[in-house]
Structure formats: structure tokens, C-alpha cells
Amino acid sequence: MSEQDDLEYYIKFPTPYPPAPKDPSSGNTTAEPHEEFVFVYDEDKLPVVILLGWAGCQDKYLAKYSAIYEEKSCVTLRYTAPVECLFWKRYRMRDIGRRLVQVIADMNLHEHPIFFHVFSNGGAFLYQHVSFAMQQLETPLKVKGVIFDSAPGERRISSLFRAISAILGGHPFTNIPMSFVITIFLSILWLFEVIAQSLKEGCPIPTNPIALAEETHSWPQLFLYSNTDDLIPAKDVEKFASRRAARGVRVQMVRFTDSPHVKHYAAYREVYINIVCTFIHECLIPDNSSDLKEASHHREPAERPRLTKRVVLPSEASKPLM
């Protein structure tokens, strides 16, 4: 992709036809837990879910996640930043973030309720630049919430090595030395980048997703992470989420006990769908707290907790498909 090329994104609008009703004669009349969700906001303003993939993510994998929302009649937009822009041409990320926001506006989706579903540090880094671009808009997007899957985490050489190794793939005999060389090169490059940013006057270009802890936007955030993630440790996500809650953001944390990096959906399919659908449903509920206060002079309405945490046990894992 040259600097002037169009973004290679994928957008899908829901069909106007509702799904066919279940046949009572089939004997299977029990709905799945997530089938009860119908996101009602405005018939002319369907919810929009923007999925930002992890580094090296193929769209066929990201499409499995967007299908969750498409089944609920949401508009979905999928995009994964090029690997070279995430690792060594990072100066281009600001332009990508700005152009992605412009795509949303050009399609007249800026008046719709918008959610971001962000994967790993690659998706979080891109969201960071989208967030920065949104701050420059005269007419802000109507973002209702953000879902972080396996993100964000501190930049570490060990995590960088594992990420590069996963992207390269192939036989360990060639993978390990190549990953080692690329990791050293990028580490030196990032060191010079940090030094250059510290010497530059004005507003520095964001380079670390952890800096999102100081993001000015305060819409609700959901964090999906794991004890066994070898790229983004659980302690990084929990520390970040706590900092967001301390800034007044409504935060939900869901810790899976044994699922790998960006594999929580594969291991806990039904639980995962239920969690993200519940989050979006709650974010779409109008805030009537001001009306409640006017209606009652003696009792204040109960406020939602700023930070909640849930642990998903292995016994809740999805059963393998037959």
C-alpha cells in the first residue's frame, strides 16, 4: 500500500430481512443465550462495530468476529493496519487513523452509535491514532464503547519477539534466527524513535498503546484477557483498566483462565458472544439518570460501578462442534 492508496477495509450492512423463525416441530425451541439480544437504538441509525485486527491478522479471521455483530443487524467495518506500518513505518499510522475516521464520515455513519472492537497491541495502536484523529474533528463520532481483546500491554522485547515469530511462521530452524534479527533491529529503531520524540517540540506522535490510559474520551470500555496470554500479560491489562476507571471511565474486566492470545472466542464461544453483546446492549441503553433525579427528591438513583471484574473458568469453555 503506497501512502496514497485507499485503505483496504471491508464493510458490511445488514440484510433487511429478519432471520427465519425456528420450526417448533423440530423439537429445538430453546434459544441460545446470545440470541435474545436485539440491539434497538434507532431504525435509521443501526449500531456500527469497527473491528481493528491484530498485527498480521488475515481478514478471514477477523470476519468470524464481525459475524457476531452482523447477526444482530449491526453495520460492521473491518480493517487491519499493514505490518510495516505497525513496526517500522509507524509515522504513517497517524494518516491511517485520520483516513479511517474520514471513511466513517463519508459513509454517513458518524451519526450512528459506534463501537470499536480492538485486538492486541496492533489494533490498540491503530485505535490510538483513530482516537487522536477524532479529537481533531469538529463533529465528533457518536462512540458508545470500546472492546479490548488481549490488549493493551507494555512494549517488551520478549513480547515483540513472540509477535514477530507468530507473524513469520514456518519452521523453527529459520523462524527463530529471523525473528531474533528483526526483533533487535526494531528495538534499536524504537529506541531512536523515543529519543527523537523526546527532542521534538509540539504534540508528539503516539507510539505506545499504554498511553491510551490518559485518553481524553471517557466512553465505557470492556477488557477481555487471559492468565495464559504469552504476549500481553494479564497484569498489564488490569493495570491499564484500573487507570481508566480512576479517570472516571466505566470499565468491565473479563479474565479467561486458560485461553491463548486473541483466542478467547475460539475457546469460549458462547460466553464470549454473551459478554460482548451484553456490553453493547448496556451501552445503548439511554442514560435517564437526570430524569430520575427530577422525579425523586429524596432518593438518588443507583449508579453503575466504575469497575467490575469477572473470571471465566475452564468449565465454561465451549464444547467442540460435532
TrEMBL record:
One cellular component (GO) term of this entry: nuclear outer membrane
Main location: nucleus
Record's bilayer topology term: Single-pass membrane protein
Keyword Transmembrane: yes
Subcellular location: Nucleus outer membrane
Lineage: superkingdom: Eukaryota
Signal peptide as annotated in the record: none
Transmembrane found in the keyword field: yes
Key words of the record: Membrane, Nucleus, Transmembrane, Transmembrane helix
UniProt cross-references to Gene3D superfamilies, sorted A to Z: alpha/beta hydrolase
Family membership: Belongs to the TMEM53 family.
UniProt protein name: Transmembrane protein 53
Protein species of origin: Neodiprion lecontei (Redheaded pine sawfly)
